[in-house]
Design brief:
By secondary structure, the protein is an alpha/beta fold. The chain is built from twelve helices and 14 strands. The chain is globular, with a radius of gyration of 20 Å. The strands form three sheets. A seven-stranded mixed β-sheet has the order 7-6-8-9-10-13-14, with helices on both faces. It has a five-stranded parallel β-sheet with strand order 2-1-3-4-5, with helices on both faces. A two-stranded antiparallel sheet has the order 11-12.
Length: about 375
Amino acid sequence: MGTLTVGVIVPETGLFSPAGKAMKNAAYLAEEHIKKYGISEFEVKIVVADGGSTPEQAKSAFMELAKQADIIVGAYSSDQSVVCAEAAKDTGKIYIASVASTSQLEKAVREGNRFVFRNAYNTSYWGVLAGEFLELSGARKYYFVGYDPLRTFNQGMLKSFEGKTNAVKIGEVYYRSTRASPNDYAIKAEEVARTADSETAVILGDPGATAIQFVKTYRKAGGEGLVYSVGGVLALPKTLMTIKVNHIAFQSAALENTEKTRFTGAYFEDYREKYGEEANNYAGILTYDAVLIAAQAWRGDTESTIQALESEEFEGAAGIYRFNSEHQALWGSEKLRGIIAEYFDGKIEILYPEEFKTSDAVWP
C-alpha cells in the first residue's frame, strides 16, 4: 500500500481562526473516514499548517506543506487562495480550494494552471443561493449588509443576483471588524432597522461571530422581516438555539437531515461524537469533502490524478462532485446543491432544494 499525504492549510491564528478550528477538525475526521469506508487504496495521512489570515502566511504554509504533501487543500480567504494557486503552479502540487470563492481561480485555470481545483462555491453560486432565497421568501425589497474584511466576496455575491430578482434593493452597507471599530456593527444595524420594514429581507454577508451581534442589535432596534445569512456562525443550530432570534434564514452546504450521500450523516454524527460540538460549518464540511476528493482521485502521481479530477465523480458529505473545464465544482447541478434553511421557534426548517423541503419561508 502506498501513502498519500494531504496538506491542509487552516487559519489557526488571526481573523479567521474560528473557522480554522472547524477546518482542522474536519480534515482529521476525513482521514478517519477514508480508512473506515475504504475509499482509497492508499494510506492517507493529514498534515496541517497554519495559514493565518494573510496571503503571505498562506503562501508560507503552502510552501512548507509542499515539501511533504502530495495534494494541498484549504486556505480561507480569496486573497490567500490566489497565492496558493500560484504556489501550486510553481511547485507542481495539486491544490483544492475548499473555502474561497474568487473568480481568480477559474481565471488561473483558463490561463493554463492545471493544478488548481475548487470544491467550494464560486462567488456566482453564493449569489445564486441568495437569489433563490429572495424568490422563495417572496420579499418585495432587500437590504444588503456586508462585512468590510470580505467586501470583495460580498460585492461579487451581490452582483450575481442584483437586478435579477423581483425584489428591489433599497440599501447597501458594510460594517468593519470589531477589532477595527468595536461598535460599527451596532451603528449599521440601527441604520438598517430605520430603513427596512416588514416587507424587506436583510441579506447578511458576514459568516463570523459579529453577525450574531448585528442580528440581535437589528431586532432590538425594531428591525423586521427575514434575515438571510451566508451561513457560518448563524448556521450553527446551537448558536441559533442560544440567541433565540426567529426568522433567520441561512445557507449551508449540507445539514444533518439532508442525506445527500452516505457521508452526510456520518460526518455530522461522528463530528459531534469526536469533538463534542455541532458540525454545521461551511468551511469545515467542504474541507472534509476536499480531503475525501483528494483520496478518491489520487492515482499515485500528479498527472494521472489531474486527469481523474477532470473526468470523474467524487462522493462527499455535501453531494457528488464533478469539475468543469475551469476546475470548478458544479454547484447547482442535480447532485450538488446548497441548502437554504430557516430558524423558527426552536426548529430548523429546510426551504430549498425541493427534495429536502420541510416548510415555506415564515415571515415575522
